[in-house]
């Protein structure tokens, strides 16, 4: 059990370090940052003990599928404050996780609510579904921000960097043993976000 928890600590540190590296590189070359992000994620999936892939699937793993980088899906947005509202978000296993909605971001592709994980570690969480969900991407949605786990592209002043090229699937896509919050109804975009990870 201790080894498993230390592996999880190591995995989260690597993800946090990766996003730090990506933030720095993205300022100079967003495409190179995206390639680096993909390469490190593939290596973590392939070889880390805390990989979302079941151990028996790792040897045959050849990399996660993504759309090519498209700058049209990279935005910065100031979080528009909303009255704080606690609500439960459904999970992939039929349970719920408690979040607090505290704001929204208005983007050219639609408006998304920004959530705070109402648990011990806390963190900003931004899941979404779009017209690709259930077709070329997971039906339960993808994640853009999950700061409790290190997934954070940073800010410019008061504006969050929201680059959908870095949208990724929750772990439950690869192994049903993982418990993943799904994108709530308020975060369903009608347009197709043709960026980020594919199934």
Please explain how this structure is put together.
This protein has 3 helices and 8 strands, in the order αααββββββββ. The chain is α+β, with helices and mostly antiparallel strands and about 200 residues long. The chain has one domain (about 1-185). The strands form 2 sheets. Strands 2-3-4-5-6 form a 5-stranded antiparallel β-sheet, with no helix packed on it. Strands 1-8-7 form a 3-stranded antiparallel β-sheet, with no helix packed on it. Helix 1 (about 1-25) packs antiparallel against helix 2. It is globular. The two termini are about 30 Å apart. The model has no long low-confidence stretch (mean pLDDT about 95).
Global mean pLDDT: 97
The biggest sheet amounts to:
5 strands, antiparallel
The level of helicity is: 10-25%
The number of strands is 8
Spatial ordering of strands, largest sheet: 2-3-4-5-6
- Given as residue ranges, the uncertain stretches (5+ residues, pLDDT < 50) are none
Q: How widely separated are the two ends?
A: 31 Å
Helix-strand sequence: HHHEEEEEEEE
Q: How does the overall form come out from the CA principal axes?
A: globular
Number of domains: 1
Our Rg estimate from Cα atoms comes to: 16 Å
Task: Please give a quick description of this structure.
By secondary structure, the chain is α+β, with helices and mostly antiparallel strands. The protein has helices at residues 2-26, 30-47, 55-58; strands at residues 74-78, 80-90, 96-107, 110-117, 124-128, 142-146, 155-156, 159-163.
């Amino acid at each position: 059990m201790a080894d498993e928890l230390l592996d999880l600590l190591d995995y989260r540190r690597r993800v946090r370090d990766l996003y730090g590296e990506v933030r720095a590189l993205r300022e100079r070359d967003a495409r190179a940052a995206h390639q680096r992000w993909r390469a490190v994620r593939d290596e973590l999936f392939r070889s880390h003990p805390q990989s979302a892939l079941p151990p028996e699937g790792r040897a045959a793993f050849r990399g996660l599928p993504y759309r090519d980088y498209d700058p049209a899906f990279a935005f910065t947005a100031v979080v528009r404050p909303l009255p704080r509202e606690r609500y439960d978000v459904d999970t992939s296993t039929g349970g719920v996780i408690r979040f607090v909605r505290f704001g929204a971001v208005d983007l050219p592709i639609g408006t998304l609510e920004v959530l705070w994980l109402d648990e011990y570690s806390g963190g900003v969480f931004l899941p979404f579904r779009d017209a690709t969900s259930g077709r070329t991407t997971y039906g339960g949605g993808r994640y853009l921000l999950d700061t409790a786990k290190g997934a954070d592209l940073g800010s410019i002043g008061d504006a969050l960097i929201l680059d959908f090229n870095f949208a990724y699937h929750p772990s439950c896509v690869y192994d049903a043993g993982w418990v993943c919050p799904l994108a709530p109804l308020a975060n369903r975009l009608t347009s197709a976000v043709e960026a980020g990870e594919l199934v």
